[in-house]
Specification:
Strand order of the largest sheet: 3-4-5-6-7-8-9-10
Distance between the termini: 65 Å
Structural class: alpha/beta
Helix content: 40-55%
CATH topology of the largest domain: TIM Barrel
CATH superfamily of the largest domain: Aldolase class I
Strand content: 5-15%
Number of domains: 2
Largest sheet: 8 strands, parallel, barrel
Radius of gyration: 24 Å
């Protein structure tokens, strides 16, 4: 080796010893190289480490039994509508304004005379004890801590009374009509007695639950003895319907049934599951108090159409006469901004907060809400919008 080669070798060694890359490649005694290097696929170990809501999905996939994960993850058939809910956002572009003083943005949203600090709400999602021992109670505590609207499913694993107590105020109650009208009335009256102010009537399961193939396949690889939890009457673990004689869900709902429910309660009535402008117009004719654009998270029918794609034609009919709500695939603050720009008054999240619940309980739900709220605030600042009312279709390309 000549002098020049030796000199080059010394310079290379000096560079390596002083390089910041050294900390990424060297291991302490007893460590392996693989253990010393973190990868982008590493799971977070506490809620505060999350960068976005998808970090919680990774943890939930590790923690949940396959059948429970399948229930949360499934759409129907090929999951095309499930995917469309999220993918549709990528086809909607934003036009941002500049040189606007947005040091302070106000996300205050008003629904039926009550003000909320943001337009983000927790969707009604059933069976939350399948995802965390505290179930809906943990979600309620998180909603209380962050002051978000919470809707409670008919097929909840905690009662409306208990959830409202943990929330610190009555939640909104999501209603499935039952084949037994007296049972439906019992649910309505129980929601009224619990102090609920809004009834969210779900109408998108006509003909029954679709073929949820992803759920069925994931159930087959679950080696637990599921009968330990699912033995006994069909709805034994659902406190809102468990004591009823025949609590089967009504799969064929009509405008006549809607009118019957409307005339049976003084609660505000929101219709959930609207996907067409014509149905929105009929809702207005039937004097509903609010319209909720939803395809059941891609779990009702296989339309291949995301809810954000349905929203503009419905908003054009509603014309801000009643509150307009939406859910389906919302994962980012920009997604929420796009829905508000198209005319929504409030935006619901479902799977993301259940990922947080599955991963870290109440703290996980709180962090999901914080992340999405912060992302929406940053999007508003980037667009030059200081209030929710300033977000219009002018910002959609």
């Amino acid at each position: 080796m000549n002098d020049i080669d030796s000199q080059h070798r010394r310079l290379l060694l000096k560079f390596l010893l002083t390089s910041p890359l050294l900390g990424l490649t060297m291991c302490t005694p007893g460590e392996t190289r693989k253990a010393a290097i973190k990868t982008l696929d590493d799971l977070i170990t506490q809620a505060s480490e999350a960068i976005n809501v998808f970090d919680f999905e990774k943890v939930a996939r590790q923690k949940l039994p396959s059948a429970h994960l399948g229930y949360l993850s499934t759409g129907v058939r090929d999951d095309a509508t499930l995917r469309a809910n999220s993918e549709a956002f990528s086809h909607i572009k934003l036009k941002m304004r500049r040189l606007v003083d947005t040091r302070s943005v106000d996300m205050t949203t008003e629904l039926f005379g009550k003000k909320w600090p943001t337009p983000i709400f927790l969707c009604p999602l059933s069976s939350q004890h399948a995802f965390h021992p505290d179930g809906e109670l943990a979600s309620a505590r998180a909603a209380k801590a962050k002051n978000h609207l919470q809707m409670l499913s008919t097929l909840t694993t905690e009662s409306v009374e208990d959830v409202s107590r943990e929330r610190g105020e009555p939640v909104w109650y999501q209603l499935y009509a039952l084949t037994d009208w007296n049972g439906t009335l019992e649910l309505i009256h129980r929601a009224e007695d619990a102090g609920c102010s809004v009834l969210v009537f779900t109408v998108d399961l006509a003909g029954g639950i679709g073929n949820r193939e992803t759920l069925e396949r994931m159930k087959r690889i679950d080696d637990r003895q599921c009968s330990n939890c699912h033995s006994g009457p069909k709805y034994a673990r659902r406190p809102m319907v468990s004591g009823m004689k025949d609590p089967e869900l009504e799969r064929i709902v009509t405008w006549d049934l809607l009118d019957k429910i409307r005339n049976s309660t003084k609660l505000k009535l929101v219709v959930k599951g609207i996907e067409r402008g014509e149905d929105a117009a009929l809702c207005m004719e039937h004097q509903v108090d609010g319209i909720y654009v939803s395809n059941h998270g891609g779990r009702a029918g296989e339309t291949g159409r995301g809810t954000i794609e349905c929203l503009p034609e419905i908003a054009a009919v509603v014309k801000k006469r009643v509150p307009l709500m939406i859910d389906g695939g919302f994962r980012r603050g920009t997604d929420i901004f796009k829905a508000l720009a198209f005319g929504a008054d409030a935006v619901g999240i479902g799977r993301p907060y259940i990922w947080g619940l599955s991963a870290f309980g109440q703290e996980g739900v709180e962090t999901v809400l914080t992340l999405l709220t912060n992302e929406l605030a940053m999007t508003m600042q980037g667009a030059g919008t200081r209030t929710i009312k300033e977000i219009t279709q002018d910002y959609i390309a």
